[in-house]
Every structure is written in C-alpha cells, then in structure tokens.
Inverse folding.
C-alpha cells in the first residue's frame, strides 16, 4: 500500500528490462504509477494531471534517446520536475521600507497559526528585530491566552487589548496594533487571525477587513502538511478572498508526505517560505524544496535522517563515539545501550530504516520490526554488571543465566544478543581502521540476513552509507565543520568510492 | 577538508545500522516463540498529586446554557452538504445519469472520488463495482443510478458497524478518552461532546489532560462553564495521566454519568508522546476501564489519516472516530479507508463552528445527505 515510487516503477519496468529501452506504452504504464504515487501523497488531482503530462513528455524524449536504466531515468525526471515546481521561486521575508513591517497569518482552523506566530516572532527576534504579536483571533476560546503564553515563552511583546472568546472586534485590534507598534517602535508586527473555513463568506469578509486594517507587507497562508485534496481549494479560496504572498507548511515533523505543498505552489504560484517541524518554538526552518520532493516521492531522505539524528544524539556523545570509531577502539555494550536509547527517540526502527534509500524492498520486513524489542535488548544489557558491559568476553554460563533471569529473558536470547553485538563491534572496528574498505562488504553483518537476505542487504547497506557522504557534504558544511572540525583524524580518505557505480540520483547528489 | 563531518554522518548511520541489526536479529530469532506478556507498569506510589479539583460550585455561578438535543442533529448536515457544490454524490450522479457511461465518464467518476480523499484503493474498488452493476443491470435512468449509488455509498460507509458511544456503564461513570494529532479539534470536540451528553440528560465531568498546549485547559474550562460541566485541571506542564486519573475519580465521587478526557495533540510519529498517551490510558485504567477512545480526525486530512489511525489504534486501541470540520468540505473520504483497513467506525461528526454542531454519525442519514435531494 505504501510502496514508494521507486519500488513501483521498478516493478512496472521489471517486465521490460530485456528491452533496454522504453516504448510509448511502457512510458504510459510508468506514468500511471507516478500518478498513483502522487495521489497517495495527497497531491491534488488537477496538479497531478498537469504534472504527469510534463513528465510523460520528458520521459518519452528520454525513451527515444535510448537512455539506459529507464526506471532511474524517469525517477530522476520526476524528482527534477518536483524540485523545479517547489523551489521555483524561494524567497525571504520582505521588510517594509518604513517600519513596521506587518505580517498577517491566515489559514484554516487547526493549521497552527497561533503557534507559528510565536515561532516566527522568536526567529525574527533572533535576527535582531523587535516583533510584536497581535491577538486578532477573538473567535476560538482562549486563543488570546494561548498567544499570550507563547509570547512569554518567546520573550516578545504582545498586543492583546481584547479578551477574545467571541468578544471584541479584530479589525479594531489590528488597526490599533499598527499605531501601538509605531509608538513603541516595534519594527515587525505579526497578526494572528482566527482560523476559518474557506467557504465561510462571512468570516472571509472579516478577514479581508482585518487585512485592510493591517495593510500587511506579507500575508502568509499557514497550511497543515497533512491536508488532503482540499489543499487546492483552500489555497484558491484564500488567494481570491484575501490574497497571500507565501505559504508556511506546518506539522512537517509528522510522516505526512505533504503533497499539498506541491498542489498549492503549483496552483497559486506562491512560494513556500517556511516549514514548521516540531512543537518547540525553535522548531522552525526555511523550506527545502529538494527534501520535500524526495519526501513526496517517498524516496529515502538521508538529510532529514541525519538531521533528526543530530537532534536526538547529543553532540558530545556523537563526538565521543566518532572518536572511538576512528581510533579503532572497542565499541562497548554501554555505548551501544546509550546509542540505542537515543535512536529510540527518533521513532520506530521501521521508519528510520525506511528513510535510508534503497530500503524500499525491505518495507514489508521493516513493518514487522517490533520496537519493544529494543526495550528487551536494553533490559538484557542493563542486567549486566559494568565490567560485563565493558568486556562481554567474561560472560560465562553462570553470568549469562543470571543476566537472563535478571532481564526476564532466556539464555538463548542473551547469547544471541552477545553474538550479534560482537559482530557489530567487529564491523565498527573495521570501519575505524580501514575507513571505507570495510563498509561495502560489511563482513560483520551476518546478523542481518534474517532482515533482508544475505547478499542483497549487504548491497543495500553499502548503498545506504555512501550517500551520507555526498549529502552531508552538501548539507550545511559550515555548521558541521564548526561542530566536528579537528575531531576526526582524516586517516582514511574514502578512496574506493566509485561514483560511476552509484545509481544516478546518488551520483547527482555527489555532484 | 570536511572529511570530519563525513565521518560523523557515517558513524551515526553505522550505529543505526548496527543497532538495527542486533535488535532485528533478536526479533527474528524470537518469532514463533511465545510472546512474552507485557508486565504491568508498577503503580505510582503516591496517588497523582498534580491535579487540582475545582469546587463543584463553580459552574453554578455562571450562566449555564441549555444545549440542543442530540436527536436530529445530523439532519441539519443535509442542508450543509447540499449547499456545498462539491458533494460526492451530486457529482457522481450528474456524471452517471448523462447517458451511457463511457470511459471518460468513469475517469471523471474516479476523479470525483479521489478528490474526496477516498484514496486510490477504495476508489478503484467502488468504480469496479459500479461499472459491473451498470453493465449487468443496464439501467441508466436517474432513479436507478441514484438507488445504485446510494447502495454502494452506503456499502462504503458500512452501516452494520456499531456506532454507539458508550454512555452508560453500570454503577460507574463511563470514561471517554479523546485523542488525535495537533489541530484537529480535540478540545473543541470534547467540549461539544459534553454538550451533546448533557443535552441527553447526563452529568459530565471534563478532564483537561492537555497540559502541554498553552491555554488548552482554559479553553476546555470555557466550554465546561458554558454547559455546567465540572472541569478537572492540572498545572500547565504537569502529568496528563495524573489529571486524567483525578478526573475519573472526581467523576466517580460526584457520581457523574460520563467523564470525558481531553488529551494534548500529538503527532503519531513522536514515539515519546505516544508512550505518554499510552500511560494516560493505563493510569486511568487503574481506576476504571476506558469505555471509549475517540480519535479526532480533521475532514481535510488526506492519506496521512490512515497512518494516524493505525498508530493511535496500536497505542490506545481507538474505538471510534470523530470526524471534524466536515462542514463545507464534503471530503473526509479518508474515514472510509480507515473504517475498511482498521475496522474503526466513525461515531461523531463535527458540522460547524457552532457549539451544538456535533452529531452522532448515522450512515443512512449521511448517505442521504450526499445523494438525497437530487
């Protein structure tokens, strides 16, 4: 059901492999798959239709040119087209020549406007502005209180003369807010409006009045990334009703594929400016079109994975691990436990693995992975003494049976864990010692066959790891370099990394 | 140059891979072995001190509104849906009654269904059935098609499912837990549900177990005060399980009929938050069984709704769905997929912004509203 596009296309094209090049009918079939994949990602139907037409044209051209590996070719085309639409015109906030700059937030109920107002304010404050939050959502019970609390958390000023809960006139509040900001020298005014349904003419009228009172320099439409086919209509209604300059996508930290982003950009021709990725006020970032494209297609998203990892693995711990690995030191059960606990914070194993490119074929198995297993493994390790954790070799029969009893497992399970751990340990060591050569073969991984099946999974792993290089190189070097520079001795340069052997999308990433 | 950061990335990944390998290995070995029963979580030593219980007199001070009766609320949906020119049934009917359906007609039918967020799978199935029926039965009179459409749509929303909200538990208050992702309208639904129950002559205690979002408890308090339901609330940032526990106890002490617990919105991908939700339910269950777990789903949600429902079902065994913000969108097709895939019925629908715009879901009425007036 949730098979990703790459898998779908691979399956469709499998039958055609012998031919080596695509006929028109083949392209037709693949385009159909692309259509389904996009629909399942909640891209609006009219947009899907338009999009597939473009892809089809390009795919036909590619087919005619007799390109090798048509599946990859088509995915590449799709990916490029997606980025072209999503990232067509990114831009930043435009500030007014004469302050205050007024930013108006509009959107459906529950899209996350109030929270976003706080995030935006905090961001702007960090950039040296003095933002003012304006509570113009007088509809929803206690929205004003919520904004007040958020303003305290963000440490920014708030203008909330009305109690809300249906009392007060948002238009007047907005008008007064402008004056207030001018008096108190706030250079940015963020107006939080009440959520409304696009079809409610009366509320739309009110929003228009608020807009006229606010005379906003930027009107941002706040959209929930989980929205379905309604996205286009919502965007259109808002574009017609009040007009907006850019879009903010919220709740991107969920696992919604976010096809709505594509729909909205494509229909309204307005760029997506920011993405909101969590519940904390700091979980706010500039929108990345390339990542969104990968996400819509459900292609592995290494960058997000690494970023998530960065967020949960604390820097010091990662640094220590990395040093250990590169120094060829033993990776102990304690380290393992620590890393596993951090990993758990990133979500289910199945999901994390799913983010590695090329894991698609293993999806079915990944879905079977029971996350409670981590708890059991943790229980086993926690039943060991510190000495045992440092040096698992000392585990004799009686220690093992004690551990089994202590963790409520069986000796067999303890044995299994130790065995697999020592393989993993070997692998880590090899990594540190020889740099890359150890990875492609991953000799220490026989624990995996159960997961994906011997050879295949080795290949996958190798593939999974390589892109990390390319991507992390192009990610945010400045930040990373600051963090990591000087920690790693670049003893082993990955010399055997053969770019030509990589699938094209990875090649592209590697430049 | 930046080989340092390359290494960092690799190290993290290797760790992930290594951990997965070890854990998955254990798992696979385990398969077939008897499943180890989960140990019950040890009872908290001190009984949840975090929550404060307001004096029962508080609601009496304020003016208490009398909500509309529950019966016939869905009836109003009909006019709302009819007004919306996007109604599924209307579009389908118009297409199908335009004479002998051709391939392009079917494409348009498919489009209509997809646009309602029905999902690719159910859409194709419904089309296959309609196609077969049109071929076999041959009739293309509007009446016939209307009948066919009604039957198939009804089939799709499955009228045989039990959609009653547990309102009476013998001798103790019925406990309803309201869960969902952020911004779907949980607090609003909780408030409206309280009104619905009160309109039914019940006494209700509300538990403001959303201790995370700013002012969520105030929002629920406002709802409670309006209809005279006691609200049990905790400190902001406090333990939601403690608040839920206290709410149920207050309900039992005051011999209320129903306790409705509002929880904080959480994305289903946040493992920690989902664990917290599991805890809320477990802690409540120390005192009283949870009779109903309602997942609040926004009608504008797309295919992600299924992923949400799946995870929430795993964690708290949802027993029903409250579909909110249905007014004017006429979408919410995702619930069909959720019902089919997970067997969890829609029990409530939110029809608008008014305080009494929450109705018990009735498949017949619903389909009538879709196809009816045409």
């Amino acid at each position: 059901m949730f098979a990703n596009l790459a898998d779908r296309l691979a399956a469709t094209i499998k039958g055609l492999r012998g031919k080596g090049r695509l006929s028109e009918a083949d392209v037709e079939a693949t385009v159909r798959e692309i259509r389904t994949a996009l629909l399942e990602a909640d891209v609006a139907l009219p947009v899907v239709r338009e999009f597939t037409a473009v892809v089809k044209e390009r795919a036909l051209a590619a087919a005619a040119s007799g390109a090798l590996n048509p599946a990859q070719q088509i995915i590449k085309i799709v990916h490029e087209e997606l980025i072209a639409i999503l990232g067509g015109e990114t831009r930043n906030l435009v500030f007014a020549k004469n302050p205050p700059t007024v930013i108006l937030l509009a959107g459906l109920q529950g899209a996350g406007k109030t929270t976003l107002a706080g995030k935006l304010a905090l961001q702007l404050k960090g950039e040296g502005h003095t933002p003012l939050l304006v509570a113009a959502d007088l509809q929803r019970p206690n929205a004003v209180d919520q904004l007040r609390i958020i303003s305290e958390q963000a440490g920014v000023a708030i203008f909330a003369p009305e109690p809300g809960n249906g009392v007060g006139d948002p238009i007047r509040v907005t008008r007064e807010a402008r004056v207030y900001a001018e008096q108190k020298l706030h250079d940015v005014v963020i107006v939080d409006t009440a959520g409304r349904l696009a079809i409610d003419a009366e509320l739309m009228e009110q929003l228009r009045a608020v807009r006229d009172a606010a005379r906003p320099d930027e009107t941002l439409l706040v959209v929930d990334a989980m929205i379905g086919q309604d996205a286009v209509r919502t965007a259109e209604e808002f574009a017609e009703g009040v007009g907006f300059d850019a879009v903010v996508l919220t709740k991107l930290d969920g696992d919604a594929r976010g096809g709505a982003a594509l729909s909205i950009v494509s229909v309204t021709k307005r760029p997506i400016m920011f993405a909101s990725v969590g519940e904390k006020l700091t979980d706010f970032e500039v929108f990345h079109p390339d990542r969104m494209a990968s996400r819509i297609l459900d292609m592995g998203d290494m960058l997000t994975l690494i970023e998530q990892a960065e967020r949960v693995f604390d820097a010091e711990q990662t640094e220590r691990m990395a040093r250990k690995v590169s120094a060829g030191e033993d990776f102990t059960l304690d380290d393992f436990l620590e890393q596993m606990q951090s990993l758990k914070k990133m979500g289910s194993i199945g999901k994390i693995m799913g983010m590695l490119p090329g894991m698609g074929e293993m999806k079915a198995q990944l879905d079977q992975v029971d996350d409670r297993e981590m708890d059991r493994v943790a229980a086993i390790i926690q039943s060991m003494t510190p000495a045992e954790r440092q040096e698992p070799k000392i585990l004799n029969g009686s220690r093992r049976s004690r551990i089994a009893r202590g963790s409520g497992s069986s000796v067999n399970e303890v044995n299994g864990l130790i065995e697999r751990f020592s393989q993993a340990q070997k692998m880590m060591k090899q990594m540190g010692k020889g740099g890359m050569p150890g990875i492609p073969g991953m000799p220490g991984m026989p624990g995996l066959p159960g997961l994906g099946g011997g050879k295949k999974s080795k290949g996958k792993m190798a593939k999974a790891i390589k892109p990390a290089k390319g991507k992390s190189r192009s990610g945010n070097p400045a930040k990373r370099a600051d963090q990591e520079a000087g920690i790693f001795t670049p003893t082993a340069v990955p010399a055997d990394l053969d770019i030509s052997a990589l699938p094209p999308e990875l090649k592209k990433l590697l430049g | 140059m930046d080989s340092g950061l390359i290494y960092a990335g690799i190290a993290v990944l290797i760790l992930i891979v290594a951990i997965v390998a070890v854990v998955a290995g254990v798992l696979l070995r385990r398969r077939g072995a008897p499943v180890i029963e989960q140990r019950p979580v040890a009872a908290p030593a001190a009984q949840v001190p975090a929550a404060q219980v307001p004096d029962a007199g508080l609601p009496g001070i304020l003016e208490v509104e009398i909500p509309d009766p529950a019966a016939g609320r869905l009836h109003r949906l009909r006019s709302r849906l009819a007004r919306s020119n996007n109604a599924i049934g209307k579009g389908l009917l118009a297409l199908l009654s335009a004479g002998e359906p051709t391939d392009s007609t079917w494409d348009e039918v498919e489009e209509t269904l997809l646009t309602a967020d029905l999902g690719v799978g159910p859409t194709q199935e419904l089309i296959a059935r309609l196609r077969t029926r049109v071929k076999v039965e041959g009739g293309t009179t509007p009446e016939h098609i209307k009948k066919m459409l009604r039957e198939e749509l009804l089939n799709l929303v499955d009228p045989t499912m039990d959609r009653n909200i547990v309102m009476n538990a013998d001798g103790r208050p019925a406990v309803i837990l309201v869960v969902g992702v952020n911004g779907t309208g949980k607090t609003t639904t909780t408030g409206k549900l309280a009104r619905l129950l009160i309109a039914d002559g019940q006494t209700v205690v509300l538990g403001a177990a959303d201790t995370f979002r700013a002012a969520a408890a105030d929002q629920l308090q406002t709802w409670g005060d309006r209809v005279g339901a006691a609200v049990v609330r905790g400190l902001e940032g406090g333990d939601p399980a403690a608040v839920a526990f206290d709410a149920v106890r207050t309900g039992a002490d005051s011999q209320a009929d129903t306790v409705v617990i509002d929880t904080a919105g959480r994305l289903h991908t946040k493992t920690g938050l989902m664990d917290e939700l599991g805890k809320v339910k477990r802690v409540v269950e120390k005192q009283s069984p949870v009779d109903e777990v309602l997942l609040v789903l926004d009608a504008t949600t797309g295919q992600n709704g299924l992923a949400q429902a799946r995870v929430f079902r795993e964690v708290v065994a949802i027993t029903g769905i409250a579909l909110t913000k249905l007014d004017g969108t006429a979408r919410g097709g995702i619930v069909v997929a959720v019902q089919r895939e997970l067997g969890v019925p829609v029990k409530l629908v939110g029809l608008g912004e008014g305080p009494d715009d929450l109705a018990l879901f009735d498949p017949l009425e619903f389909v009538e509203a879709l196809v009816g007036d045409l």
Remarks:
- Confidence is low (pLDDT under 50) at residues 435-511 of chain A.
